[in-house]
Write a structure and sequence with these properties.
Helix content: 25-40%
Low-confidence stretches: none
Oligomer: single chain
Radius of gyration: 28 Å
Number of helices: 2
Number of domains: 1
Structural class: mainly alpha
Mean pLDDT: 86
Strand content: 5-15%
Protein backbone atom coordinates (compact mmCIF):
# COMPACT_ATOMS: atom_id res chain seq x y z
CA UNK A 1 0.00 0.00 0.00
CA UNK A 2 1.21 3.43 -0.94
CA UNK A 3 1.57 6.28 1.57
CA UNK A 4 0.01 9.63 0.74
CA UNK A 5 2.44 12.46 1.16
CA UNK A 6 1.41 16.02 1.87
CA UNK A 7 3.80 17.55 -0.64
CA UNK A 8 2.53 15.61 -3.67
CA UNK A 9 1.69 17.73 -6.73
CA UNK A 10 -1.91 17.81 -8.00
CA UNK A 11 -5.13 19.82 -7.82
CA UNK A 12 -7.62 19.77 -5.03
CA UNK A 13 -11.37 19.62 -5.35
CA UNK A 14 -11.68 23.27 -4.30
CA UNK A 15 -9.27 24.39 -7.04
CA UNK A 16 -11.28 22.43 -9.58
CA UNK A 17 -14.54 24.02 -8.42
CA UNK A 18 -13.04 27.54 -8.60
CA UNK A 19 -11.82 26.88 -12.15
CA UNK A 20 -15.23 25.60 -13.23
CA UNK A 21 -16.95 28.61 -11.63
CA UNK A 22 -14.66 31.01 -13.51
CA UNK A 23 -15.39 29.22 -16.79
CA UNK A 24 -19.14 29.39 -16.16
CA UNK A 25 -18.97 33.13 -15.48
CA UNK A 26 -16.89 33.77 -18.59
CA UNK A 27 -19.21 31.73 -20.80
CA UNK A 28 -22.23 33.57 -19.35
CA UNK A 29 -20.59 36.83 -20.45
CA UNK A 30 -19.69 35.57 -23.92
CA UNK A 31 -23.07 34.05 -24.92
CA UNK A 32 -25.06 37.33 -25.06
CA UNK A 33 -22.26 38.97 -27.05
CA UNK A 34 -22.31 36.07 -29.52
CA UNK A 35 -26.11 36.30 -29.78
CA UNK A 36 -25.95 40.02 -30.61
CA UNK A 37 -23.13 39.36 -33.05
CA UNK A 38 -25.30 36.89 -34.98
CA UNK A 39 -28.25 39.31 -34.98
CA UNK A 40 -26.00 42.17 -36.12
CA UNK A 41 -24.79 39.99 -39.01
CA UNK A 42 -28.40 39.28 -40.01
CA UNK A 43 -29.16 42.99 -39.96
CA UNK A 44 -26.19 43.72 -42.21
CA UNK A 45 -27.35 41.00 -44.59
CA UNK A 46 -30.88 42.43 -44.58
CA UNK A 47 -29.59 45.90 -45.46
CA UNK A 48 -27.48 44.44 -48.28
CA UNK A 49 -30.42 42.41 -49.66
CA UNK A 50 -32.80 45.38 -49.52
CA UNK A 51 -30.24 47.53 -51.34
CA UNK A 52 -29.72 44.82 -54.00
CA UNK A 53 -33.46 44.44 -54.67
CA UNK A 54 -34.08 48.19 -54.68
CA UNK A 55 -31.22 48.75 -57.13
CA UNK A 56 -32.67 46.02 -59.38
CA UNK A 57 -36.11 47.69 -59.26
CA UNK A 58 -34.54 51.02 -60.20
CA UNK A 59 -32.50 49.42 -63.01
CA UNK A 60 -35.69 47.81 -64.39
CA UNK A 61 -37.45 51.16 -64.33
CA UNK A 62 -34.51 52.93 -66.00
CA UNK A 63 -34.35 50.29 -68.75
CA UNK A 64 -38.11 50.54 -69.34
CA UNK A 65 -38.41 54.32 -69.08
CA UNK A 66 -34.98 55.89 -69.70
CA UNK A 67 -34.49 59.35 -68.24
CA UNK A 68 -31.56 60.19 -70.51
CA UNK A 69 -32.70 62.42 -73.41
CA UNK A 70 -32.86 60.47 -76.68
CA UNK A 71 -32.47 57.06 -75.01
CA UNK A 72 -34.88 54.32 -76.07
CA UNK A 73 -36.53 51.76 -73.79
CA UNK A 74 -34.84 48.36 -73.86
CA UNK A 75 -38.08 46.37 -73.62
CA UNK A 76 -41.85 46.76 -73.91
CA UNK A 77 -43.77 47.38 -70.71
CA UNK A 78 -47.39 46.71 -69.96
CA UNK A 79 -49.57 49.79 -70.29
CA UNK A 80 -50.28 51.42 -66.91
CA UNK A 81 -47.19 50.06 -65.12
CA UNK A 82 -45.21 53.27 -65.58
CA UNK A 83 -42.15 51.12 -66.22
CA UNK A 84 -42.05 49.50 -62.78
CA UNK A 85 -41.75 45.70 -62.53
CA UNK A 86 -45.03 43.82 -62.00
CA UNK A 87 -43.43 41.62 -59.29
CA UNK A 88 -40.02 40.50 -58.00
CA UNK A 89 -40.15 37.37 -60.14
CA UNK A 90 -39.92 39.49 -63.30
CA UNK A 91 -36.58 40.89 -62.07
CA UNK A 92 -35.20 37.34 -62.11
CA UNK A 93 -36.91 36.06 -65.26
CA UNK A 94 -36.13 39.26 -67.16
CA UNK A 95 -37.76 40.95 -70.12
CA UNK A 96 -37.25 40.29 -73.84
CA UNK A 97 -35.23 43.00 -75.52
CA UNK A 98 -36.94 45.11 -78.20
CA UNK A 99 -36.02 44.12 -81.75
CA UNK A 100 -34.06 41.00 -80.76
CA UNK A 101 -35.18 38.18 -83.04
CA UNK A 102 -33.45 35.56 -80.90
CA UNK A 103 -35.49 36.53 -77.85
CA UNK A 104 -32.59 37.63 -75.66
CA UNK A 105 -33.62 38.81 -72.25
CA UNK A 106 -32.32 41.43 -69.88
CA UNK A 107 -32.27 40.26 -66.25
CA UNK A 108 -31.89 42.39 -63.14
CA UNK A 109 -31.43 39.80 -60.36
CA UNK A 110 -29.90 36.33 -60.38
CA UNK A 111 -32.27 35.21 -57.67
CA UNK A 112 -34.58 36.69 -55.09
CA UNK A 113 -32.57 36.88 -51.86
CA UNK A 114 -33.65 35.11 -48.69
CA UNK A 115 -34.85 37.51 -46.01
CA UNK A 116 -32.36 36.79 -43.18
CA UNK A 117 -34.75 37.94 -40.46
CA UNK A 118 -37.82 35.88 -41.46
CA UNK A 119 -35.90 33.10 -43.29
CA UNK A 120 -38.36 33.44 -46.16
CA UNK A 121 -38.27 34.45 -49.80
CA UNK A 122 -41.43 36.50 -49.21
CA UNK A 123 -40.81 40.24 -49.12
CA UNK A 124 -43.26 43.02 -48.45
CA UNK A 125 -43.96 45.04 -51.59
CA UNK A 126 -45.20 48.58 -52.18
CA UNK A 127 -46.53 49.92 -55.46
CA UNK A 128 -46.47 53.44 -56.80
CA UNK A 129 -50.12 53.81 -55.75
CA UNK A 130 -49.46 52.77 -52.11
CA UNK A 131 -48.56 55.07 -49.25
CA UNK A 132 -44.81 55.07 -48.52
CA UNK A 133 -45.40 53.46 -45.09
CA UNK A 134 -48.17 51.12 -46.26
CA UNK A 135 -48.04 47.44 -45.26
CA UNK A 136 -50.33 46.37 -48.10
CA UNK A 137 -49.53 46.04 -51.78
CA UNK A 138 -51.76 47.24 -54.60
CA UNK A 139 -50.87 44.14 -56.67
CA UNK A 140 -48.82 45.75 -59.43
CA UNK A 141 -45.99 48.20 -60.10
CA UNK A 142 -43.39 47.18 -57.52
CA UNK A 143 -41.84 50.44 -56.39
CA UNK A 144 -40.33 49.41 -53.05
CA UNK A 145 -39.58 46.34 -50.95
CA UNK A 146 -39.36 45.80 -47.19
CA UNK A 147 -38.88 43.04 -44.60
CA UNK A 148 -42.14 41.57 -43.29
CA UNK A 149 -40.82 41.10 -39.75
CA UNK A 150 -42.52 43.15 -37.03
CA UNK A 151 -39.52 42.61 -34.68
CA UNK A 152 -37.50 45.48 -33.26
CA UNK A 153 -34.00 45.97 -34.64
CA UNK A 154 -30.92 46.06 -32.41
CA UNK A 155 -30.98 49.86 -32.38
CA UNK A 156 -34.13 49.61 -30.23
CA UNK A 157 -35.86 52.34 -32.21
CA UNK A 158 -36.98 50.94 -35.57
CA UNK A 159 -38.76 47.79 -36.66
CA UNK A 160 -37.32 45.75 -39.52
CA UNK A 161 -40.36 46.44 -41.68
CA UNK A 162 -39.51 50.17 -41.56
CA UNK A 163 -36.11 49.75 -43.25
Amino acid sequence: MRKIRMNEKGITFIELMITVAILVVLSALVLPVAKFSVQRQRELELRRDLREIREAIDAYHEAAMPTTPGAQPKFQVKFGTDGWPPDLKSLVEGETLIGDVKGKKIRFLRRIPLDPITNSYEWGLRSTQDDTQSQSWGGENVWDVYCKSQAMSLDGVTHYNEW
